[in-house]
Amino acid sequence: MMYCMSVSHKKASVNIRERFAFSEEEKVEFVERLMKKEAVTGVVVLCTCNRSEIYVSGTKQAIGELQREAADFKGIRLEELLKYLNIYSGESAIGHLFKVACGFDSMVLGEDEILGQVKSAYEISKDQGAVDYEMNVLFQRAFACAKRIKTDTNLSRTPLSIATLVANEVFRFEKEGGEKNVMVIGMTGKMGNTITKNILSKPGIHVTGTVRSHKSDLTMEVKGDRVKVVDYRDRYQYMDEMDIVISATSGPHYTVTCEELSEQVTPGKRRLFMDVAVPVDMDPKIEEVEGLTLYNIDYFETLSKNNTEIKLKELDRANVIMKEDLDGAIKEVVFHPYIRRMEELKKTFAGKRLDTLLFEIRDHVSSEELKVVLKTLDGLESWIKEG
Amino acid sequence: MMYCMSVSHKKASVNIRERFAFSEEEKVEFVERLMKKEAVTGVVVLCTCNRSEIYVSGTKQAIGELQREAADFKGIRLEELLKYLNIYSGESAIGHLFKVACGFDSMVLGEDEILGQVKSAYEISKDQGAVDYEMNVLFQRAFACAKRIKTDTNLSRTPLSIATLVANEVFRFEKEGGEKNVMVIGMTGKMGNTITKNILSKPGIHVTGTVRSHKSDLTMEVKGDRVKVVDYRDRYQYMDEMDIVISATSGPHYTVTCEELSEQVTPGKRRLFMDVAVPVDMDPKIEEVEGLTLYNIDYFETLSKNNTEIKLKELDRANVIMKEDLDGAIKEVVFHPYIRRMEELKKTFAGKRLDTLLFEIRDHVSSEELKVVLKTLDGLESWIKEG
């Protein structure tokens, strides 16, 4: 039987979660320690910024051993630890693992970063020989399920955040040969910062970010050679080279006016200007500049709203997939002991008459169970014929 | 499949129920008429003061046929009829039959008069050949269940009403040889009237009832030679002959005072005086009369309260019995078709390997179903060994 002990954002504040975080070394050490217990036949320690979860498999005593050892390992009193725990057992633990692996338990529903984290947690234990048959089946099936949801639905490909939508436009912008030059006006603001990070997650893009020279407390880390920081006042000087210009300041004035832009840039070149500020940063008239396309905040908000609807539908589809795969995993775990017992079972039933067996069943099971057995019998008739 | 169409106190007022009542002749006629329908293989018409219910068994069309014919037979528009109906199908119809037969659907929970009514309704149909295999099984099992509840629990033997409790004291009063003489002071009042009826339900009891001579509108029917009516003012004249005196008037004065009683009755004779009036009718001092026992309303209210607790416990026990028997009935109905198909099933499964069958099952059923099948397989192993 598998169990899961979870300290997550559902019950524990960030302070508690930090206190209960495991480094890679600690994972290895804790797994080793727990595997010494007789009751335990498998341990996986998963630790992300939102949760610390320990999956353990073994006898009924396994979950008790886990709690005591975890409290001891982290120097927390067991009584206190219990306050922050969610405990899952058997099928509910399997269901929880599937939810976590598929991103259904994440803050951003359906995000797929978690899958990599679960996989790596699993690998650490696997390398230590701390994954038993049941755990192996369940984790592998959970990974397969997450992959199927990723492939067969658009759940993880349907962003809702403006920053992601803007970055997607950058990636989609077609430019033959050479790298894309992107200016981010207001790069040190919250939105500008997130957009910049998103853009730089793919190669072939250079960012020129503007900063206000009078801001002496500039703390943004500018990493790598793909980002250049320029003074806000000099922005027009660089604009002609740009394929894309994004503006995300909180100021009341236009950061790009039609007059100045027309003076500075070569007409005819294909350019994408994106204004995600409220109130608007870019003069709507700049659309008159030849080759220039302008998207404003309304455009992205409509996209986000449409994506919300899509995401809800994809979520339904993903749920169907998850239930199906979860059911298959439970079946495998439930069925497994019978494979080993097959010869013994064959002997028991050898030469027994079907009617004798059916009457025994009728006299011993409940009506609900009898209905399932008879339905299965009917099914078998046709499955055999098909097979 | 069995269906039930019910017009009961749950949805229909007494007027509607009366309009939908069936006399014995009508029952016979209606059963005959409905049995002519191809879809119908069984009909039972049950009619009590609280409900008219028609049980029908046959194909899916049977319930539709029943509704149309019932509306036609009673000259009620189908749309109007539908307003007052409860329809039960399959297992819910079986469950309803059991509830009704066991008195769980009655105004007085657990009363057993209904059982006789259901039995006689069934007999009428049985005599007409209008009870098919399924109905026969279900009604017989419902009767057996009701009988088991009556025998194994104290549900129907635990009265809550003061009138029944008073009557029970009369029945329990021991008198060697001869009949019991009971005086009911205030016999024409509601309580006095009910008590008198209850008392007369058993033989060997004579009632002397007092009435006020100034009440010219006396309408109580005095039936049989076991009841004598006397003037209230003459009550003390008769009291010496009495074994039991019950007083249930609504007046403010004592109906029995100690002084007058002491003058009129022979001391030493065993007597039971029961005062169920509020305010009290009998002078508490009469207990001083030799041989006399006095019970007042507090005594009966305590009895009733204790019985309520007993009844609730008995109800739980009765429910357990009903669920058990209901489950057995459903199993028999579900299983029956397979008995006829046994030879065909044997052929289908002849020479099939157990592991082949189990893998087919695992691949086709849900995890919930698989668990039931495997649990049944485990059960069979031990049932065979026991058998």
From TrEMBL, chains A, B:
Q: Which reaction does it catalyse?
A: (S)-4-amino-5-oxopentanoate + tRNA(Glu) + NADP(+) = L-glutamyl-tRNA(Glu) + NADPH + H(+)
UniProt-annotated binding residues for NADP(+): M187, T188, G189, K190, M191, G192
Q: Record's SUPFAM superfamilies?
A: Glutamyl tRNA-reductase catalytic, N-terminal domain, NAD(P)-binding Rossmann-fold domains
- Domain Quinate/shikimate 5-dehydrogenase/glutamyl-tRNA reductase as annotated: residue spans: 178-301
For this UniProt record, the keywords arranged alphabetically read as follows: Coiled coil, NADP, Oxidoreductase, Porphyrin biosynthesis
Identify the pathway: Porphyrin-containing compound metabolism; protoporphyrin-IX biosynthesis; 5-aminolevulinate from L-glutamyl-tRNA(Glu): step 1/2
Domain called Glutamyl-tRNA reductase N-terminal: residue spans: 6-153
Q: Name one GO biological process term.
A: protoporphyrinogen IX biosynthetic process from glutamate
Outline the subunit composition: Homodimer.
| Domain commentary | Possesses an unusual extended V-shaped dimeric structure with each monomer consisting of three distinct domains arranged along a curved 'spinal' alpha-helix. The N-terminal catalytic domain specifically recognizes the glutamate moiety of the substrate. The second domain is the NADPH-binding domain, and the third C-terminal domain is responsible for dimerization.
Q: Give the protein family.
A: Belongs to the glutamyl-tRNA reductase family.
* UniProt miscellaneous comment: During catalysis, the active site Cys acts as a nucleophile attacking the alpha-carbonyl group of tRNA-bound glutamate with the formation of a thioester intermediate between enzyme and glutamate, and the concomitant release of tRNA(Glu). The thioester intermediate is finally reduced by direct hydride transfer from NADPH, to form the product GSA.
**What's the name of the protein?**
Glutamyl-tRNA reductase
**Which gene codes for it?**
hemA
